[in-house]
């Protein structure tokens, strides 16, 4: 192999098609784009929807734990929580035992939205024609990657 061929081989790692990050990024953008019509009906952004899903499951949770579950820092999470609170879907309150901790809790209005949100996963499964077996395998691989990237700290 001459020097020019060797140099080209060395730069192969910079090709877009050789990056795992690009298909993850592009798929994420495309999937989130598919969520928009369903979430617009609820008046939620994708990030707000993620927060609401955690609250529908837990009803009340600490902001720190919520951020950990969603892999979001407080700088990203705080405006999302403020917006959801302004919509009347959740309330934030300092913990009585430790004023440094803030908890968020679902309001009755937020809990009532859960029924309407059932259209989202149904609509999404109809929007993406993907073999169930492939979907299950992809799900497992993505969580395996997420665990590796977060050193197994997934909440």
Molecular structure report:
- This protein has 155 residues and is mainly alpha-helical.
- The chain has one domain (3-149): Winged helix-like DNA-binding domain superfamily/Winged helix DNA-binding domain (Arc Repressor Mutant, subunit A).
- It is built from eight helices and three strands, in the order αααβααββααα.
- It has helices at 3-11, 21-42, 46-58, 63-70, 74-86, 108-117, 119-127, 132-149; strands at 60-62, 90-94, 102-106.
- The protein has a three-stranded antiparallel sheet with strand order 1-3-2.
- α2 (21-42) packs across α7.
- The longest helix is centred in the first third of the chain and has 22 residues, at 21-42.
* Helix proportion: 55-70%
Round the mean pLDDT to the nearest integer and report it.
91
| Total count of strands | 3
| Alpha-carbon distance between the two ends | 49 Å
Number of domains: 1
Order of helices and strands: HHHEHHEEHHH
Short description:
This protein has about 160 residues and is mostly helical. It is built from 8 helices and 3 strands, in the order H-H-H-E-H-H-E-E-H-H-H.
Question: What's the helix and strand layout?
Answer:
Elements: H1 3-11, H2 21-42, H3 46-58, E1 60-62, H4 63-70, H5 74-86, E2 90-94, E3 102-106, H6 108-117, H7 119-127, H8 132-149
Antiparallel strand pairs: 1-3, 2-3
Keywords:
about 160 residues, mainly alpha, Arc Repressor Mutant, subunit A, 8 helices, about 65% helix
